[in-house]
Design brief:
single chain, 2 domains, Rossmann fold, alpha/beta, 12% strand, elongated, six-stranded parallel sheet, Arc Repressor Mutant, subunit A
Length: 247
């Protein structure tokens, strides 16, 4: 409980029983519950008024029960970057979580089912308030699966990937055959398999080869961008723009 006194938290969830339960739990654990809201507009008005250290937000709230909580989180992050954001969700929602976590440190995404582990929930709120980032383990697994699904090259075998990479370098079938020590007929079979697996539309063969190369380049670009974002990601410390929270 040490260090949490004066750490102000606002709660936003249209489930009054859950909201009151979280408020009681946080208060008993040393946090100051500065207010509660049942909709996105109420949350924004509350946060602008009390300027809390942490906002715990349900991702789906009235009036539309869509992503009002996430939309409010975007506004809070833009207007009050010193307010940490913890989003609660009933289900793993990959795109919404990715957008939230791209906002940098002081963010968390937790499934509501984790709230039943009281100690973990309290620790998580404290870590997010201190500028850390917390990701639900279920989301991590889903992100891995989603990344694999989104990469069209995952359907290719290692040899087909190798052939496609050489195609991207501009090599002809004969040139590829010499490079990987197979017959030109074998390369032609690999190329046909690549075009089929990438579900490219039937057209003149050379045009389909160009489309396949574009898929390859797009995939490599996404990989490069992910690696660059990872290498540029700051350490989990409070950023310069965030005020020092007392949590």
């Amino acid at each position: 409980m040490a260090g949490r006194a004066g750490c102000r938290v606002v709660l936003a969830d249209d489930d009054v029983l859950l909201r009151e339960g979280l408020a009681s739990l946080l208060a008993r654990s040393g946090f100051e519950v500065a207010g509660q809201a049942g909709s996105g507009p109420e949350l924004l008005a509350l946060v602008r008024s009390v300027r809390p250290e942490v906002a715990v937000i349900d991702i789906r709230m009235p009036p539309g029960q869509a992503t009002e909580g996430l939309q409010a989180a975007r506004v809070i992050r833009a207007e009050l970057p010193g307010t940490a954001i913890m989003v609660l969700s009933a289900h793993v929602e990959v795109e919404e979580a990715m957008e939230l976590l791209a906002g940098g440190s002081g963010t968390g995404y937790l499934l509501k089912s984790r709230v039943t582990d009281v100690a973990q929930f309290i620790e998580t709120v404290g870590r997010v308030a201190a500028g850390g980032s917390v990701v639900d383990p279920s989301l991590v697994q889903e992100l891995i699966r989603a990344r694999r699904r989104r990469d069209p090259l995952d359907v290719l075998s290692p040899r087909e990937r190798e052939v496609l990479a050489l195609m991207a370098e501009g090599a002809s079938n004969a040139g590829i055959a010499r490079r990987i020590f197979v017959t030109e007929g074998t390369v032609e079979k690999h190329v046909r398999a690549i075009l089929t697996k990438l579900d490219l539309p039937e057209s003149e063969t050379e045009h389909r080869r160009v489309l396949a190369v574009l898929r390859f380049l797009e995939s490599r670009l996404r990989t490069s961008q992910r690696q660059r974002r990872t290498s540029e990601r700051p350490q989990a410390t409070a950023p310069a723009g965030r005020r020092g929270n007392s949590c």
